[in-house]
Amino acid sequence: MAKQIGEKRRLALAGMGGVVALSLLVMGGCCSSGQDKPVPGPVATRTATALIDAATLKGWAEAGLVNRKRGEKVVILDITASKDFYDRGHIPGAIYVDPSEIVQTRIEAVAASSTMVADGSKMDALIQRSGIDENTTIVFTASSFDPVYNATRAYATFRYWGFPKDRLKVLDGWDNGWKEVSALTSAAPVIARSKYGVTPSGVNRVQAGLRGSLGEMIAAVGGFDATKHAILDTRSIATAGPYAGTPGATLGVFAPNAGTPPVATDYSVFEGHLKNAKAVPYTSLYDKGNASRFFPKDDGTETSLKSKFAAAGMDETKTAYVYCRTGYIASSEFFVLDGILGWKVVWYDGSWSQWGQMSASAENEGKLPETAAWATDVPGLSELVVYNLGKTVPISGTPTVLTLKHIETLPIDPISASLFTKTTDPRANQIENEDADYRSPAAAGPTGPAGSGGGC
Fold it and tell me: Residue 397's pLDDT is what?
């Protein structure tokens, strides 16, 4: 007990010292002219990785960085599925973000796909209402009631839009972690809008290499090289669930039938997994018994993040391709690989809700033409393929034979389908092409948020 008390005292003193140091940095960062001046990179918020603990965030708050009006500051985005959860209690100063603000339905290849990365105008709206500018470090969190992947989905989205890692942080343990060091509040902050955007001074910073389009994923799977690549299925264990091709494992994503059982009544055309994919369930990367904190980066044990990926054949020399059902779950592994381990990773946000619909098997409700190059239910691209039509699955607790009404219809775009007959056609990468062409109408700031060498 004495040892524990001594340790707490040491941490408290260290924290006080940190707050003093941060306060001096904050004071030094104030502009006497009253104008914001972009800093070359974060100083007060520099950390070893993009994962931070609650004590670190508390130190930044006590130093006056949260929602600071000028100079280097911190903005906390609380990506929570229900506004009610946010209203019940959130980190002081945190801004509520509905998950729908960072996703949208967009056409890619020959059809529309749900929950794709948000476009530039949607990102600008979020950035500006949150008061984010060129000097902002963004911290992502979620309510105590939310899954681990809401915050990481935001991280992946901001990374794709060119925000450097040293300006993006994910709070370990989300609001659960914060409650161990301080109290939550029900008061919502009043935020002054910014004029910033994803293309400051007209400079587009989209990091297309961090995201996999359908065409790029078909190429990656078809050209798989185990010495250079790892394809990671983040949904389930290898012996059950979506990875194993369990019928009815993948729910539809388009209204009116999309949702969570028993609401959902439609499913993807087929189940299975990308060829050569290894199952690394996202739930294996964090400790539910420890406020859902991520396991250590590399402590030499089997539970370390490095060990979990090594078991799937992934290491720092390879590029990982991560996917799930809608891009949410996969974002948690994208974050671990990109933000904590610093390894090369590509995030497939279309995931199985897109891949599992690309079928030319008319007898199984596939909607692609028989000669379609975009079909993914072929031996060279998918394994353990199981078509849902005619299979028996439990719906509202009742065993139900899936008929045509239970299979989600692929929303093919006729114009795209007529134009893009090859998966290698660069025009079929509409999302990344549109995003690369985007310029914010009212972008502010010269180049920021600027990154810096070393640390995050």
Answer: 87
Whole-angstrom distance, CA of residue 300 vs CA of residue 307 = 8
| Cα–Cα distances in angstroms (integers) from residue 125 to residues 29, 194, 197, 262, in the given order | 27, 10, 8, 34
Let me know: does 451 contact 207? Beta carbons within 8 Å: no
Question: CATH topology of 45-207 equal to that of 209-429?
Answer: yes
Asked if pLDDT for residue 29 goes beyond 50, the answer is no
The domain at 209-429 falls in which architecture?
Answer: 3-Layer(aba) Sandwich (3.40)
Strands in 207-289 per DSSP E: 229-233, 270-274, 277-279, 286-287
Token readout for 55 is 């004590």
pTM of the model: 0.88
Distance CA 2, CA 76 (A): 36
What's 190's DSSP letter?
P
Distance in angstroms (rounded) separating the CA atoms of residues 339 and 50: 5
pLDDT digit string, tens, across residues 359-397: 999 999 999 987 789 999 999 999 999 999 999 999 888
Report whether 351 contacts 231 (CB < 8 A).
Answer: no
pLDDT at res. 289:
86
Whole-angstrom Cα distance, residue 14 to residue 35?
Answer: 33
Closest CA to 91 of 31, 25, 179, 29: 179
Report the C-alpha gap between 355 and 359 in whole angstroms: 9
Q: Which amino acid is at 230?
A: A
Q: Which residues of 55-71 are buried (b: 16+ CB within 10 A; e: fewer)?
A: bbbbbbbbbebbbbebb
Q: Maximum CA pair distance of the chain?
A: 74
Mean of the pLDDT values across residues 409-416? 95
| CATH architecture, range 45-207 | 3-Layer(aba) Sandwich (3.40)
Q: How far is CA 66 from CA 107, 185, 210, 318, 411, in A?
A: 37, 15, 29, 37, 43
Residues listed for the chain: 456
Confidence of residue 442 (pLDDT cuts 50, 70, 90): low
**What is the DSSP track for 225-242?**
-TTTEEEEE-SS-TTSSG
3-state secondary structure of 103: strand
User: Could you tell me if 58 and 16 are in contact, meaning their C-beta atoms sit under 8 angstroms apart?
Assistant: no
Pairing of strands 277-279, 229-233: parallel
Q: Domain residues of the chain, as ranges?
A: 45-207, 209-429
Parallel, antiparallel, or unpaired for β 398-401 and 392-395? antiparallel
Return the residue matching tokens 């974050």: 335
User: Which amino acid is it at 292?
Assistant: S
Rounded to a whole number of angstroms, the distance between the first and last alpha carbons of the chain is 35
